[in-house]
Amino acid sequence: MKILGISGSLRATSSNTALIRAAALLCPPGVEVTIYDDIAALPSFSPDLDIEPLPEAVRDLRARIANSGALMISSPEYAHGMPGSLKNLLDWLVSALEALEKPVLLVSASPGGAQYAHAQLMEVLRTMNLNLVDGGAHVFARARLDASGEVSDPAMLAKLEDGVSRLLSRVR
After folding, report:
1. 2-171 falls under which CATH superfamily?
2. What DSSP assignment string belongs to 75-118?
3. Which of 33, 49, 119, 143 has its CA 20 to 30 A from that of 172?
4. pTM of the model
């Protein structure tokens, strides 16, 4: 089974991207997680552009989602909300069928706890009719990563493992 991981952070050394990498390592054999790393390439959403032929970056995003059995989204919180780049990505999916009812594990993490962004994302994902697995909002900072930038915090790994397990049970 294929899972597409989406980080809401554009930062090259993002702790939210590290959370997706950690979740991927917790998946059993036969589950392949690919991280979508072209979020910055998406044009700003406009209904005028949401017609054939679609912009190449949008066509690619939708194809990747269509070829995935589930999604993982990890998002930081900026000014009590989700990053604009992540909201833009989700806006490109609103009128598309590829993500409809797809299981998605949502984890939100930032030094302040990300509770506002998490609540906002949950509302948007439910409105989009995604099959939401709530992985929670977490206080998580770069200091909780090891020297190579990977998640090493046992409590966070346990929470991710629980979320992955619940996500996979929705797919099967």
Report:
1. Flavodoxin domain (3.40.50.360)
2. E--BTTB--HHHHHHHHHHHT-STTTT-EEEEEEEETT--HHHH
3. 119
4. 0.95
